[in-house]
Amino acid sequence: MMITDAPHIFMDISRLLSRARNPIPTGIDRVEYEYVSYLLKNEAHRLTFVAFHPAGCIGTLSTRAVCHFVDAMGQVWDGDRPLRDRLPHMARRLTQSVLLSCWAMPRHRGDSIYLLVSHHHLTRPGPIERFLSHHGSLFVPMVHDLIPLEFPEYARPGEPQRHARRMETVARLAASVIVPARAVAHSLAPYMQHRPAENHVHVVPHGLHLQLSSLSDAPASRLPDDGRPYFVYLGTIEPRKNHLLLLNLWRAMVEEKGAETPRLVLVGRRGWENENILDMLERCPALQGNVLEYNDLSDPEVVSLLQGSQGLLFPSFSEGFGLPLVEAMVLGTPVVCSNIPVFHEVAGENATYLDPTDGPAWRKAIDALMAQKPQGRTAGEAADMNLFNWPRQVAAGIAVADGTAAFFRSNGLRAS
After folding, report:
1. Fewer beta carbons within 10 Å, N or C terminal of the chain?
2. What stretch(es) of the chain map to CATH 3.40.50.2000?
């Protein structure tokens, strides 16, 4: 049922536009995509798409053009290779249109929310402030994590300083904030003290890509057709993901067991500050043919890979949520992961938790999983594990935005 006094929503898609050249989505890419898809289907009557232009403004976009772009992006993520070359061109045209709209953007009359579910351009508070002032909008951002501030040793040079600026923008301008886990809310709390959204930080866990519910029509595997069992690690190759733990374990296993060693399949692009990891991948003889690396698998290929594996290994030192954890559990794939608060929050009793520095414990868990057969597993029950589909989770996020507008309206407050 349409709520007539619901606020207008300015949905920012800057992150998706900036990622048009990347055929494999990150977790944050997926979040923005799912919010856009839900709003188009359920809230189009009160929706305007906007994006940031590098010239320093935020402007509106054609809904029809955004529909075509998002539809194409979803197909690319599902493995449509011919569309890959067209997607950057579509993004470029949309970005160019932002600049044109900035010159003649009418003011919105009535309550409105500016919704930004990525960290894109949070280091540029000026354009955000001008947009909020122009429309009288309330700012509702999503903060995914504070990892660069909590673990600066794992960040790219300059990233802790950039993330500090992002959090200052959120603290100063946000009317409320969405976070994916209580652990993130706890980390954010010190930055929000005595700020407008101090008591308006809302936990809305991420959902699960619905394609994971369809387990038929699996694509052909790219793995060698020799029947060897394997384990999977999903994630960008960067220091905080702790790939070195697994690579050292695999080197020792190969030296001990030879051809009886299961494979380790790494899925994710190469990130930053990872020279030691790449040296092992490229130059360690024991890992050649035993550790495989893929950086361009489509969503259906990842699903198939997880289903056939002995288990998902997730030894990360820090995460904001951990979508691969959810994906594996729903598929019934065993999970061995780091003993960190956010993983306990997401997985509950449905994973094996280990110290990310305890190599012998990880080896013991891997050996135990080798005794299990993937064919005998059944998919997990999402409801039992407190996991939800994306539409339900996006609806909860939109409810936060609507509640923020209602709170300001009922208390006679105005956007700053």
Report:
1. N
2. 230-371
CA distances for 363 relative to 29, 55, 253, 357, angstroms: 33, 52, 9, 12
* 13-46 per-position pLDDT tens digit: 999 999 999 888 888 999 999 999 999 999 999 9
This prediction's pTM: 0.90
Q: CA of 90: how far to CAs of 25, 68, 103, 230, in Å?
A: 17, 9, 21, 39
Say if CB 270 and CB 294 are below 8 A apart: no
> SS3 for 354?
strand
Q: Are strands 311-314 and 335-338 parallel, antiparallel or unpaired?
A: parallel
Q: Which two tokens stand for residue 187?
A: 């980390």
Q: CA Rg, the chain, in Å?
A: 22
What does the pLDDT look like over 230-278, one tens digit per residue? 999 999 898 899 999 999 999 999 999 998 999 999 998 888 778 888 8
8-207+389-411: CATH topology: Rossmann fold (3.40.50)
- The owner of tokens 């929050």 is 345
Length of the chain: 416
Residue written as tokens 């992961």?
337
d(CA 279, CA 267): 17
How far does CA 176 lie from the centroid of its chain? 20
Packing angle, helices 182-192 and 159-173, rounded to 10? 80
Q: Kind of pairing, strands 47-53 and 57-60?
A: antiparallel
What is the residue whose two structure tokens read 């598929």? 331
Q: Where are the beta strands (DSSP E) in 235-372?
A: 263-267, 291-294, 311-314, 335-338, 352-354
Of the CA atoms within 13 Å of residue 170, those in its CB half-sphere come to 34
Residue 313 near residue 172 (C-beta atoms within 8 A) = no
Say how far apart CA 240 and CA 320 lie, in whole Å.
Answer: 12
Cα–chain center distance at 373: 30
Contact between 370 and 310 (Cβ < 8 Å): yes
Do the beta carbons of residue 293 and residue 259 sit within 8 Å? Answer: no
First CA to last CA distance, the chain:
31
Question: Please, which residues have CB within 8 angstroms of residue 414's CB and are 6 or more apart in sequence?
Answer: 136, 408
Distance of CA 269 to the CA centre of its chain: 14
Q: Token match 């384990």: residue? A: 231
CATH of 230-371, one of 3.40.50.2000, 3.40.50.300, 3.40.640.10, 2.40.110.10: 3.40.50.2000
Alpha helices by DSSP H, listed for 212-274, are 243-257
